[in-house]
């Protein structure tokens, strides 16, 4: 058990999951020392200029539903690569209707705050409320 705990701590340190520069507020994201930061759904993600944040949401474009993201204004976050790419789960040959995960990467370009809003809907159903909405509050220092 001690070996397992030591492995987890080592992995966290190697991947840059530690915090630096102050205590994170309860219920918010942290400012890691490096690497890619996973966005905090429904909470706040804090980044430093130059860091990359990723958002990954479950999806299945074979149903007609796709994630749409609000435009990011003000230059706080800049879209990176991949941006809105769906990666389908591994499946048997010929199997149809398999879902996956859609990924977005953002680069923290300048200090500021922004809220990213993702809506899961069919493009042709503009008068229908989205099936799902997710928000990510991002603060860049």
Give a verbal description of the structure:
Keywords: Protease inhibitor, Signal, Thiol protease inhibitor. InterPro entries: Chagasin-like_sf, Cys_protease_inhibitor_I42, Prot_inh_I42_chagasin. This is Proteinase inhibitor I42, chagasin. One of its GO terms (molecular function) is cysteine-type endopeptidase inhibitor activity. With 141 residues, the chain is mostly beta strands. It has one domain: Sandwich (Immunoglobulin-like), CATH 2.60.40. The chain has one helix and eight strands; from the N terminus they run αββββββββ. The strands form two sheets. A four-stranded mixed beta sheet has the order 1-3-6-5, with no helix packed on it. Strands 2-8-7-4 form a four-stranded mixed beta sheet, with no helix packed on it. The longest helix is centred in the N-terminal third of the chain and has 13 residues. It is globular, with a radius of gyration of 17 Å. It starts with a helix and ends with a strand. The N terminus is likely disordered.
